[in-house]
Amino acid sequence: MKRPVINLYKYLLTFLGLAFVYWGGKVIIVTKYYSKRYDLIMDHTNVRWPLGLALLAFGVFFLYRAYKESSKRNTSSTQLAETETICVACQTPCLIDDFEEMTCPHCGGELEPLAGFYERHPELLDEDTEPGH
Ligand SMILES: [Zn+2]
Q1: 96 C-alpha vs ligand 1 centroid, how far in Å?
Q2: How far is the CA of 97 from the centre of ligand 1 (A)?
Q3: Where do the structural domains in the chain lie, given as residue ranges?
Q4: Total-model pTM
């Protein structure tokens, strides 16, 4: 069985999420900023809420997406609720924890439980995946 690839996308989303939350929080909390280079005080009190909340919303959105990514592709065996499935179209194994989302994260194809998959679809067997019995 193929090992799932480490999901860099998830880490990128987490990083972006934290960066935006930090930035948004800073915009709301620190409304006056002294710029040494231009020797002037930048004051964005008027836009602190719309700008800060927009940035926070972006951050929360990215973190939510990262969470969704990790819950979809988490390979940890401690999560007993997850089910091993395989995509009918591209035959990529994947773990799901939500039966409402029975679609392949790679190609959008239909997922079926991995157990007994090749018994139900013997035509999909090839030499690499055939069990040696
Ligand atoms: Zn697929």
Answers
A1: 13
A2: 17
A3: 8-73, 83-124
A4: 0.46
